[in-house]
């Protein structure tokens, strides 16, 4: 059965029901690896001190609780990022909170870090024994005042450090009130300096260095990117993930769902995320790796993000609209582009 037909059937279900159905189905199908094997094109790369078999990974948000590592690992991702996870379980925002825009190949979500908490995620990761590169994306609880966000990120870092290949600080979701204010330089420095100090302590304690990645919004001005880049360089952050979802609505004029609050992902985000990748690459000057995220729905989208300065790419909404074949077409397009670029 073609993925186009599968997608049409899935889109008959409510958004969150379809999400859960697909993940549970992947877990079942993983028992027969041939059903899911996409065989991505090998393209080994060393980034953040880690050896990736190719450059295409899964972005956070699809598997918030690390409940489906078995099924997702069978799809052939070079790396998988789970979360966002918060110290305590929380329900997230009220439903409806996830909206499909099929004509635009887009999603709008205001999930609000709905997750089962650190204890659950840690148990699931330990049980899965996933052998690949695993990113764990951490955030703050909605009830934690933004002025006290550091304590939540420190709790998250301590708990996931022994299990993660890298840890992502999500300070850019538009769906937790006040979270994006942590991107202001003074707030950013106040958050990152103690976390970097704790990272060094944990590296000594566990005998291994786990990189820290900062995930940024696509709605930053050129001046804000320049200021943040300087701060991240001073703080010795290990990588930047650009970008999260956008609160703008490019290309959705006349679409009634454009009025829904939340972050927009998918095809309409492509141009903005690509421009932000170029801007970050310009200011980081190769001193900090870049992970390109947002609006990648075709192989050439992924290759273009690498050409713009990203070292790795992640997909999520593109997986929903294009299907698992996107992993292979993206890895092939990147390998082809790099080969011809020398």
List keywords for this structure.
single chain, 342 residues, alpha/beta, TIM Barrel, eight-stranded parallel β-barrel, 39% helix, 16% strand
Q: How much of the residues is beta strand, in percent?
A: 15-25%
Catalogue the unreliable spans: none
Report the order of strands and helices. HHEEEHEEEHEHEHEHEEHEHEHH
Global geometry: globular
Task: Strand order, main sheet: write it out.
Answer: 3-4-7-8-9-10-12-13
The CATH H-level superfamily is Aldolase class I
In helices, the fraction of residues equals: 25-40%
Number of helices: 11
Radius of gyration based on Cα positions? 19 Å
Q: How far apart lie the N and C ends?
A: 38 Å
The top-level CATH class is Alpha Beta
Structural class: alpha/beta
Mean pLDDT: 95
Question: Can you give a write-up of this model?
Answer:
This protein is α/β, with parallel strands linked by helices and 342 residues long. The protein has a single domain (3-341), classed as TIM Barrel (Alpha-Beta Barrel), CATH 3.20.20. It is 39% helix and 16% strand. The chain has eleven helices and 13 strands. The protein has an eight-stranded parallel barrel with strand order 3-4-7-8-9-10-12-13, surrounded by five helices. A three-stranded antiparallel β-sheet has the order 5-6-11. Helix 5 runs parallel beside helix 6, helix 7 packs across helix 8 and helix 9 (299-307) packs across helix 11 (325-341). The chain is globular, with a radius of gyration of 19 Å.
How are the secondary structure elements laid out?
Elements: H1 3-10, H2 15-29, E1 45-47, E2 50-52, E3 56-58, H3 69-73, E4 79-85, E5 98-101, E6 106-109, H4 117-128, E7 133-138, H5 149-160, E8 166-170, H6 185-206, E9 212-216, H7 222-234, E10 239-242, E11 263-266, H8 270-284, E12 290-293, H9 299-307, E13 312-315, H10 317-322, H11 325-341
Parallel strand pairs: 3-4, 3-13, 4-7, 7-8, 8-9, 9-10, 10-12, 12-13
Antiparallel strand pairs: 1-2, 5-6, 6-11
């Amino acid at each position: 059965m073609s993925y186009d037909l599968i997608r049409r059937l899935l889109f008959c279900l409510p958004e969150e029901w379809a999400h859960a159905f697909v993940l549970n189905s992947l877990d079942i199908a993983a028992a027969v690896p041939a059903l899911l094997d996409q065989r991505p094109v090998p393209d080994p790369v060393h980034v953040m001190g880690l050896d990736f078999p190719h450059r295409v990974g899964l972005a956070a948000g699809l598997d918030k609780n690390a409940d489906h590592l078995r099924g997702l690992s069978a799809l052939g991702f070079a790396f998988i990022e789970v979360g966002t996870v918060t110290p305590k379980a929380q329900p997230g925002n009220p439903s409806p909170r996830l909206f499909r825009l099929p004509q635009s190949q887009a999603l709008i979500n205001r999930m609000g870090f709905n997750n089962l908490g650190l204890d659950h995620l840690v148990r699931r990761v330990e049980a899965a024994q996933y052998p690949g590169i695993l990113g764990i994306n951490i955030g703050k609880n909605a009830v934690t005042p933004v002025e006290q966000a550091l304590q939540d990120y420190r709790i998250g870092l301590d708990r996931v450090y022994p299990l993660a290949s890298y840890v992502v600080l999500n300070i850019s979701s538009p769906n937790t009130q006040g979270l994006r204010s942590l991107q202001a330089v003074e707030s950013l420095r106040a958050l990152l300096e103690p976390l970097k100090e704790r990272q060094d302590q944990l590296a000594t304690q566990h005998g291994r260095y786990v990189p820290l990645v900062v995930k940024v919004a696509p709605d930053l001005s050129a001046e804000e990117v320049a200021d943040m880049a300087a701060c991240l360089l001073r703080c010795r952050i290990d990588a930047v993930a650009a970008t999260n979802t956008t609160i703008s609505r490019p290309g959705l004029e006349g679409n009634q769902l454009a009025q829904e609050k939340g972050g927009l992902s998918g095809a309409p985000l492509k141009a903005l995320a690509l421009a932000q990748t170029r801007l970050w690459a310009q200011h980081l000057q190769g001193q900090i790796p870049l992970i390109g995220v947002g609006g990648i729905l075709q192989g050439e989208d992924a290759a273009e993000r690498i050409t713009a300065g990203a070292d790795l790419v992640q997909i999520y909404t593109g997986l929903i609209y294009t299907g698992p074949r996107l992993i292979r077409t993206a890895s092939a397009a990147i390998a082809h582009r790099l080969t011809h670029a020398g």
